[in-house]
Amino acid sequence: MNTPRHVAANILTVFPLSYFLGWNWKLIGIFLIAGIAIDIDHLFFFTIKHRTINPVEWTEIGKKMREKMQPGLYILHSPEFNLILMLLSFYNGIVYVIFLSNLIHVLLDIYEHYQYHRNFFWMKKWSIIYSSIYND
After folding, report:
1. What DSSP string describes 47-63?
2. Within the chain, which residues score under 70 in pLDDT?
3. Burial degree of 3 (CB within 10 A; 0-12, 13-18, 19+)
4. Which of 18, 49, 106, 108 is the most exposed place for a label (fewest CB within 10 A)?
5. How many whole angstroms from its chain centre is CA 17?
6. What CA–CA distances, in Å, run from 45 to 71, 72, 88, 94?
7. pTM score, two decimals?
8. Residue 63 and residue 58: Cα distance in Å, rounded?
9. How far is the C-alpha of 105 from the C-alpha of 28, rounded, in Å?
10. Spatial separation of the C-alpha atoms in residues 130 and 4, rounded to whole Å
11. What is the DSSP secondary-structure string of 19-42?
């Protein structure tokens, strides 16, 4: 979760996308908000895995996990969730905007994790199916 980087990436990509795809201000706003709101799943993960609803503890957990780029089961980052978004985007323009925003966010996260780990093995922890089978 690198909020400044995600905000900058969303701002830099929303205007060319909106120009080429003909988006109005409503869709631009949805794109910008969705690219940040995706990280709410980190709080779900911290609440369930670490059994806390304390925002101070969430911050500490997040910092510790970030230092070593530890992945977790972040539902909105999962390949399964993104596949569902992609399929639904064929039927609804707003879902398409959310999918594109989510995709950019996830690609940035993948790039950051790859820079740290130099492999993609960590990605399995993002998968709902993998996590439900192996429950690491």
Report:
1. HHHH----HHHHHHHHH
2. 1, 136
3. exposed
4. 49
5. 19
6. 11, 7, 25, 26
7. 0.89
8. 9
9. 15
10. 30
11. HHHT--HHHHHHHHHHHHHTTHHH
